[in-house]
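Our collaborator T.R. sent over the components below with a one-line note: 'Predict the complex.' Nothing else. No constraints on interfaces, no templates requested, no preferences about which chain binds where. So this is a plain run: every listed entity goes in together, and whatever single assembly comes back becomes the starting point for the next discussion.
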Amino acid sequence: MEVNIKTNSLADANNCIAKSKQSSLWRWPKLLLQSKTGTVGFLIVFVVVFVAVFADSLAPHNPAANNLGDMLKPPAWLDGGTSAYLLGTDNLGRDILSRIILGTRVSLLVGIFSVVVAGIIGILIGILAGYYGGLIDNILMRIVDSFLAIPSILFILVVLAVFEPSIMVLIIVIGFTNWVTYARVVRGEVLSIKEREFVKASKSIGTRNGIIMLKHIFPNIISSFIVISTLSVATTIILEASLSFLGLGIQPPEISWGGMLTDGRNYLATNWWLVTFPGIAITVTVLGIIFLGDWLRDVLDPRTQGRK
Amino acid sequence: MKKYLIRRLLQLIPVLFIITFVVFVLVYLAGDPVSLMLPEDASEEDREALREALGLNEPFLYQYFHFLGDLISGDFGTSFRYSQEALPLVLERLPATFELAAASMLVAIVLAIPLGIFSARKRNSFVDLFITGGSVLGKAMPNFWLGIMLILMLAVNYQIFPVSGRGTFVHLVLPAITLGTGVAAEMTRLIRSSMLEILHQDYIRTAKSKGVSDTLVIFKHAFRNSLIPVVTITSLQISHLVSGALITETVFSWPGLGQLLVQAVNGRDMAVVQAAVFVIAILVIVINLITDLVYRLLDPRINYS
Amino acid sequence: MTMTNETETNHDCLLRIEGLKKYFPIPSGLFGKSKQFLKAVDGVDLFVKKGETLGIVGESGCGKSTTGNTILRLLEPTEGKIVFEGKDITRLSERGMQKIRKDIQMVFQDPFSSLNPRMRVFDIIAEPLRTHKAAKGRVLEEKIFELMETVGLDRSFVRRYPHEFSGGQRQRIGIARALALKPKLIICDEPVSALDVSIQAQILNLLLELQKKFNLTYIFIAHGIPAVKYISDRIAVMYMGEVVELAGKEELFSHTMHPYTSGLISAVPLPDPTLRERNNRILLEEDFPDQTNLPKGCRFYSRCPFRKDKCKEEKPLFREVRKEHVVSCHYPIIQ
Amino acid sequence: SSTRENEKGTKGETGKDKTTLVLAQSADITTMDPQNSLSTTGDRVFRNMFNRLFYRDANMEVQPELVEAYENVDDVTWKFKLKQGVTFHNGDPLTAEDVKFSLERVMNDQTLKEYPYFTQLAKIKVIDDLTLEIITDGPMPTLLRLLAKSGADVIPKKYFEEVGLKEFQKKPIGSGPYQFVEWKRDDRVVLEAYPDYFDGAPKWKEVIVRAIPESSTRVGELLTGGVDIATDIPPNEWDRVNGDEGVSLVTGDTTRIMLLVVRTTEGSVTADPKVREAIDLAINEKAIVDSVLKGTGVPVRSRVPEGVIGSNPDLYDAYVYDVEKAKKLLAEAGFKDGLEITLTAPKGRYPLDGEVAQLIASMLGEAGIKVNLKLLESSAFLDIYNSNSNEELLMIGLADGLLDASYSLVHYTKERATGQTDYYNEKVEKLYHDAGRNLNEEERIKQYQEIQAIIAEERPHITLFQQGSNYGVSDRVEFKPRLDEVINFSDISVK
Amino acid sequence: MSEAETPLLEVRNLQTHFFTELGVVPSVNGVSFSVKKGETIGIVGESGCGKSVTSLSLLQLISDPGKIVGGEILFNGEDLTRLSNKQMRKIRGNKISMIFQEPLTSLNPVFTIGSQISEAIRLHQNVNKEEAKEKAIVMLKKVGIPRAEKHYYSFPHLLSGGMRQRVMIAIALSCNPQLLIADEPTTALDVTIQAQILLLMKQLSTEYQTSIIIITHDLGLVAEMADRVVVMYAGQIVEQNNVYELFKNPKHPYTKGLLNSIPKIHQLKDQLESIEGNVPIPSQLPAGCKFHPRCAAALEKCRFQDPPLFQAKQGAEVRCWLHQEEVIGV
Ligand SMILES: Nc1ncnc2c1ncn2[C@@H]1O[C@H](COP(=O)(O)OP(=O)(O)OP(=O)(O)O)[C@@H](O)[C@H]1O
Ligand SMILES: Nc1ncnc2c1ncn2[C@@H]1O[C@H](COP(=O)(O)OP(=O)(O)OP(=O)(O)O)[C@@H](O)[C@H]1O
Ligand SMILES: [Mg+2]
Ligand SMILES: [Mg+2]
Ligand code: NI
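Returned assembly:
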């Protein structure tokens, strides 16, 4: 119990500050190790991010180099496979392992940043609607309803028809079609947070609305945002696969797991390895992200994070 | 209650207005339908002539208000692609779309409820982990992949179900599983977490203190409460099922709205896109309304005012 | 009503509210236009003298918090007048109000929800100072340490988050925040009802101490009657949006006149088992009128053990029955 | 299921009986108006529902269909005598008025997709019930071919005028061997035999044309006996088709040539003929055809497909490939250190188009040409193509609907090339216009062949290969693919 | 405690711990007390001192990370900690019932109050639906709910807090339990309503000879209701005595502090006494006497040695070294 310690000098106080800073730095790994699934999730995500960053040096082959002599080679451990292509080759004789390694990059980029884009729009609109209520809320929510009713595939098709598909465009487009969910969730959250007394307290001090939204509302919705967004990263990776199915995904020579799945789907019956390995990559990554998200939810929940 | 319904339905008007405008802008931006209607080797004069004939030379706003005027009198215009009235084209798809959506929802519910409850009850056990893994897999499998797999296994290899097409009940099974799995995966997780939360509620403790058995606590006291958040998500999911079944429809050559819509967008077929989005919008809003009512049915605390 | 105006001139009056009403619309109708209102506060006249503590008691939902919030214009009053230091602030612009809010601060009921869980203590206490640009940098830091010491918090706590504190400590943070701008009036909205018995006393003592030290004026809202009695100079008893009795605390307890007040007082369990069999207890029925559709007569009619026909028909006036003791009842209890 | 059930068209896809034929195509038809459809999928249906004045036999020779006799009255006037006793499905007799009505409709209605092909017709004159005259705008050596082409279908004037286009689409009536039963969009078209067909009762009682866009599903249906013939089987599915008893793969040719549209506009790097040649040399068309396409296709050096009048046999089954020389040419052109160009290509429009484009990109890469590949979804691709915003290279597949070189070679005229390839060659221009009015068939062919030889050297188009077509066919039926990809149901027989 | 009469309930050295991710929380750490037939026991103590956990332990309703790690709970001589889940269900709601603090959240919002009462009746009594309903209505009338037949079909949210709490009481009493545990039954209510509820409970206990354990941190409430009082601090009993003695002559410094820090209506003081410091966190209890950091009278010994529960004069039990001598004196 530190209640009775009287520290009179500022230096002492600063000392305490430094200590508490340090302890908060150590708190995260500690909390992480306490949760098994959290640790697993973190490890998976860490590995995936690592692979994405160092993809170029990790890939054993040039992933775009097609080798017409080595088309559709099975994985190394099967008859006809060679150790040169650990996971086999695709229909243009490209090394699947290298493609998966390189594909990590795009899939993660698209997965994460489109969620960020959606999150920014959704949070902004959700906070405004929830905080001000009344007419503003009504107008914004009608817009949200409208967007909900317009099939997202329409947006994606049209935008990709207008702009040349690139990672940037894809991120923006997916983000732009997914913001609605966030707006709804955030608005609901804001409606309850703005009734909490600390918001009233801040108002009673004379704080301006903008500041209240920024300092009081926003930090308190961020944790539930993190939880839905980790799930959403997963959905986005898969959405990219579906877009590839429609011919709207990432363009070669850019490689994505979704694109690999789509290209390989024609070979499902005959050359299973074309889709199985990118499929496993997606599943494992998604699993990792979901585990990490679940853990984050627990940690960010003040009830579990606890009164020490 | 009646007033509530009327108010909700009146809200449709601004929403539909926004939708027509957004869709019009989108399709307008998407490009020239004419170039898609003529063969690859048609000349520029041919295209210009067609444009003229279709009234596509007018300025944007003129075209929009012209469209809006027609719309108010119930006319969505004529499909470029099918040279037919757009609305009937859309409406004739509804039965197939509904059929698939309803069946997939059923699959999802039948899978998700027991799994969700089970994994909540056995929280952190091996079974829970297994179900979580399964639902992640369910989410991570793209529809086309699952659909083709199912066809290969159950329709081609074992010939239990027909490969594709729409007709009898058995035709519905594989597409419904394909589409329902993803929904089930999400629902399972949702039921699990909402169940976990409910199980910590005071009234569960009350029930236990009355001597109610564990099974009854789960299925009577907890389940209905845990459905309340599930219903909201389900309504969102149904909206997706109505408009977003495209890939499953393509794989199983199921003549639903999704295929129509994508083809219409690809062909810049303004009238059909508008009609389809309009119909989907009304459906989505009506579905939302229905879920709201169900919500109210499940939760007596909400009143209609 | 005339009475309050007279007294006001006699005393050095910091805050005066006249005929304050706050109606909450109950949404209904086609476009959300409502014809029905929940009359949370329905014609309240009060004044607070400089340096005194005005207690407000009453059941949950009787409009205590609404009154408090309306004074600070956190809620816009439906009707009535709020005069602070002789200045009518009822229709003051948002800008003008911000200046006034420097002088009126609030301490909230729930120590767990009144502090933003994601802000450090430092920032919580600094917020009013920053908002009103009262201090910066070193000065700000010094000020915050000073405030923390004033409310009995160790300055080494500045970088902690609210969840790292106990309820009593959190309430101290809330008080420090309210004190930061050296306000003239502090509205305490049930500041101790969420606290443990042993901590409650600490906070009550602290409030009294601060009052002496800074010559503060309090409006102390609570439903715990003993605590209100302990801290207040005068007490207003509210029932269904109205003040039904108002008097100095000694006067109120020794000459309780409104049947509701006496029911309230007698229902408080006394921490003395020997008094258990006391027979002067007044039990009130549990038959609340519909708050959206109040009866035209006395609002307490349905629960009053002494009700008469007149009470049903006629609304009692708020009148001074004894010196500085006003009550709105046709048949006040005269001991 | 019983035949009776199939006749009602309810559950017909079992197709195991001898009177029902089930066909699976990769896309649905879009309309029931035969003059407003350009797709092969549509043609396969209309060919069996409607008649034309002429038709093409299995060898692509033009033969009279509705015509009893005809005569070339002068350079611009043709006279036709119609067969007697031809009736529409509603029983009305087919007369010269119907032919006039149909041809005038497609000549005049600009909104019809077939309109652009029929602009050279000037006038139709009805002489009597069974005789009519067609007057062309200038000498027209291709008239008979045009009259055998899609869009020249004869529709019933009286019925059409009576019910209007909308109703006609709901219940189309033609004079062909099969009559309309129902059309469920994106699902199936059901036709049944027209017993009073003038050429004798058709073979099949019922024909179902299903739309199954996903190739593996199409193959699945074929393997499980759901369909008798499935079109567009991509090479990756061949093993499945060939490996299964009871079905086999049938391959044929098409008139579609895959080619690269090259920008020769002043200022673009490909304006230099050396660069264009280098590109051609760097691409190994044979390897592409053999590897990715598994041999369905033939490398060609001409835009005019083999089997079409005016094609140049020297340029069929031919390709140039020499990376070293390509590098040398590039160096000569001043691109010693390589150059960068953009290749726009569709994805999902033609079989394995994306893969082919990627292969080309990497082949060019080996010669030192860095390719920015733009793989576009079909409609976005067409937008680029039609708006002439193609950059250095654009990959496209062009077919020849008329089966006449004039159709293909128009691309090299100044009028058509402007903005797209910006190619201009005076000689080509002259040859093309002379040939267009030359009624001497032999001479005309020579002129066309000469144009092709020039083009093969100057390369405003770098042609890749003539595409093949693949059908999965159930062993219970006998089927021979045609060059024009049309399927005459009556040509298919039960084994 | 007289030896002759066997108590209805006897708790011996009950220990309930929570095994959380942040370590073991000994929420209840060796609690012993007994309840006689017809007796009302009050358990007081600040928030978090283990009152609720004690009561939940009695019914074996401790949920997941929590576990009863030691002690016995003898109910009619039978050790409840040894019973199977099934046997325990027969006791819950039947012989021992419980009323919880929050009347709003303790009733299931989606079922009518009637069905929630009759559920308990049907579980433990061999009656059919109709009879259960009748009985439930009788119960509703008994706890003073007006128009009981109509309210049978009401959903909880339509009732006021007081009425909901009455429903809870009706559920708890529907099977005439021998022991009623009321865990802060009135904290959510107004004093005027609270007075009614307390009266109701008193009447019922005299009518059926039901023993009551009333858990609260309101000493006033205990003074009104209880025969005997158990004072808890940090998972332990620090003082136990009959109600009159305890209020007249509190022994433990904590009890004293508690009594002094209550503002009282009828006596006036200028300065309230208060207990300095904060309630310790159960996972970080101080060594020695758990109260010593807040205790003005703490001895050196208090800092290191946990005092046992001493038998003091006037039948009191006190956990404080200051009262060690008194024991010896007896
Ligand atoms: N924002 C609001 N909208 C609608 N009704 C409200 C609102 N705020 C308060 N009320 C209603 O006004 C009445 C008075 O509420 P208020 O919070 O002032 O009561 P209170 O006396 O402070 O009660 P408590 O002791 O529970 O805090 C209540 O019936 C409440 O439901
Ligand atoms: N599920 C749990 N997990 C971890 N600790 C718990 C749990 N439930 C209770 N505790 C701990 O046990 C201690 C005793 O809790 P309990 O609910 O018995 O207190 P109480 O005396 O009833 O307080 P109150 O007056 O607030 O109801 C608390 O400090 C709490 O932190
Ligand atoms: Mg309040
Ligand atoms: Mg408790
Ligand atoms: Ni001690």
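Summary for T.R.: Chain C has two domains: 6-103+183-328, 110-182.
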